[in-house]
Amino acid sequence: MHWGIFLISVPNLIVIGVMVAVFALGIALRLPGHGGGASGR
Amino acid sequence: MSNLTARLRASLVAALPPEQLLPDSQPEYVRSYVYVFGATTLASFGFLIISGIVLALFGPGWWHVSRIGHFFNSIHFWSVQAFFFFMVLHLWAQFFMAAWRGGRGITWLTGAVTFVVSLGAAFTGYLSQQNFDSQWIAVQGKDAMNAIGIGAYFNLLNFGQMYTYHVFLLPVAVAALTTVHLLQVRRRGVVPPIPPRGLGG
Predict the structure, then answer these.
(1) To 5 degrees, how large is the angle CA B48–CA A30–CA A16?
(2) What confidence tens digit (pLDDT) does each residue in B115-155 have?
(3) How far apart are CA B180 and CA B177, in angstroms?
(4) Cβ contacts (< 8 Å) between A15 and chain B: which residues?
(5) Which of A26, A27, A36 lies at the smallest CB-CB distance from B31?
(6) ipTM of model over 0.85
(7) How far, CA to CA in Å, does B37 sit from each of B22, B28, B83?
């Protein structure tokens, strides 16, 4: 795919899109489990 | 203190007490999937080492022709995809958390250097495949090495040199840097979230 100075293959673009999606989910989702063992370090 | 060994032991225990080296709890803010990316990177590295040992044991003549060889070759290939996938997510997460705060400069630095060394490990891996792909990459890559003036030290067309870098020197460097990185994480703790504006920090 080619826009101006940007040139990228579709597979690479898909991988980057998946990475951004996984990153957003990683921030949004909390790990399951109780309370939290705050050691306060 | 009586001798060098005792002084060394005392300083190591002072720097990393056992409950800090192997903690059984973490602060509440760590309960998010964004903190898992470092662990998944480490798990991918484990898969890389194990599948790499199997490939090294049997050699290119095996991984190109046998079905089991193809299987382990694929495990190694997909492990490195996962390794870089999660390492880059880990890098993004730590960058946006400004994870070098609170005396964690060495943690950040060792992580960044590990990333660069890993690039070399991955590149020499592509050169070690022993197929047309690796020949093409080596012939193209040697021009880059020559252009920046280090072609005399790294001959990409020399399979023996590249293979040794890939199966020994660079993995050992990545493992050593990762060990220092993890010990620093244990020593300094996981970086806390950036406080809201106006609350200092």
Answers:
(1) 50
(2) 999 999 999 999 999 889 999 999 999 999 999 999 889 99
(3) 5
(4) 85
(5) A36
(6) no
(7) 19, 17, 10
